[in-house]
Specification:
Elements lengths: L3 E5 L2 E5 L11 H13 L2 H12 L3 H9 L23 H13 L7 H12 L32 H13 L5 H16 L5 H13 L3 H17 L16 H4 L5 H4 L4 H13 L16 H24 L7
Antiparallel strand pairs: 1-2
Helix pairs in contact: 1-13, 2-3, 2-13, 4-6, 5-7, 6-7, 6-8, 8-9
Length: 317
């Protein structure tokens, strides 16, 4: 069962699952918990309860279903920066991330979503960054798209990666895999968001020799480029080591020295706001959307801190 998190000025501690009495927690965790309960969406409040307080898995799945459409896809601003109710590829990605956090790969929603992906992919198997329906609703500028948007590695590769990780056998997974390989051969991704998706795909791809060759190319590119932000105080939409290695495992983790990760953890701890939540790095489309995002970002920060503490990264003190 998920373990509770114990966070204070010195760092984090994992304690036994099942505690819901705030007096059992340190002040830092109480503040984070209070922020989520006051401000986060129902879905994220239930996800928090599952991950840190032994809350019920089915409650998370029930909340996720509210974002599901009759066509089998997900929409309704599951990714908060576009308020489109219609199904979108990025909302499919977010849904799969949540299902993965609650061991939901066996939920019937997954097969229905694969059918939606198959219907909305192009002939080569790729999905666009966003479907045109996003334009009719409030959205961040980067979500605006053309009437006939091209397929893209983001989020296609991340979606393929999750379904491959789970061993899902579906026509679209095979089509999406072929698209990702083809896209990589045409053009190496750049920028954090595209690279994140490509790395996820390469970590899960069945053709391991081909994938490892590509991961080495990506590694060389990252270490010789300015994609990784080394200044932990740099403002704006920048990506320091922990953005590339949110967990102490996998490709991203291997990019950095232990000292870099320890410094990143200290910076992450200090970024907790006075209100108990963690900030976002971009301009949200409204104050309400900013709170929605901060609820999820706060959960992600706690997950990163817990995972690194469990891996032996002792907090300063």
């Amino acid at each position: 069962m998920p373990a509770c998190l114990h966070l204070d000025e010195a760092g984090i501690r994992i304690v036994s699952a099942g505690h819901t009495d705030p007096s059992r927690y340190s002040q830092g965790f109480v503040r984070a918990r209070d922020f989520v309960l006051r401000n986060a969406r129902l879905l994220d409040r239930r996800l928090f309860a599952y991950l840190f307080e032994d809350g019920p898995r089915e409650a998370v799945l029930d909340a996720l279903r509210a974002y599901r459409n009759a066509d089998g896809g997900f929409g309704n601003a599951l990714e908060p920066d576009k308020r489109c109710p219609e199904s979108q590829p990025v909302d499919a990605e977010v849904a799969l991330e949540i299902l993965d956090l609650v061991d939901g790969a066996d939920d019937p929603m997954v097969h229905d979503l694969c059918d939606w992906l198959d219907r909305n992919a192009d002939a080569a198997g790729g999905l666009p960054f966003a479907l045109p329906s996003v334009n009719a609703y409030p959205h961040a500028p980067w979500w605006r798209t053309d009437p006939d948007p091209p397929p893209w590695i983001n989020p296609t590769a991340a979606i393929v990666a999750m379904l491959t990780k789970w061993g899902v056998d579906h026509t679209w997974v095979r089509r999406g895999t072929a698209f990702c390989w083809s896209r990589l051969e045409e053009e190496q991704p750049t920028g954090f968001d595209d690279l994140r998706c490509a790395i996820a795909f390469l970590e899960q791809a069945g053709d391991r020799a081909r994938a490892e060759s590509w991961l080495e190319k990506v590694r060389s590119y990252l270490l010789s480029s300015a994609e990784i932000e080394r200044d932990l105080d740099a403002p704006g939409y920048v990506h320091p080591p922990l953005d590339w290695a949110p967990l102490p495992k996998g490709f991203g983790y291997g990019l950095f020295e232990r000292s870099e990760l320890s410094a990143g953890l200290a910076a992450l701890r200090s970024a907790q706001g006075e209100d108990g939540g963690w900030p976002i790095k971009w301009q949200a489309v409204s104050p309400g959307v900013e709170l929605e995002w901060r609820g999820r970002v706060t959960i992600d920060a706690l997950l990163t801190l817990r995972a690194y503490q469990a891996a032996g990264f002792a907090p300063p003190g």
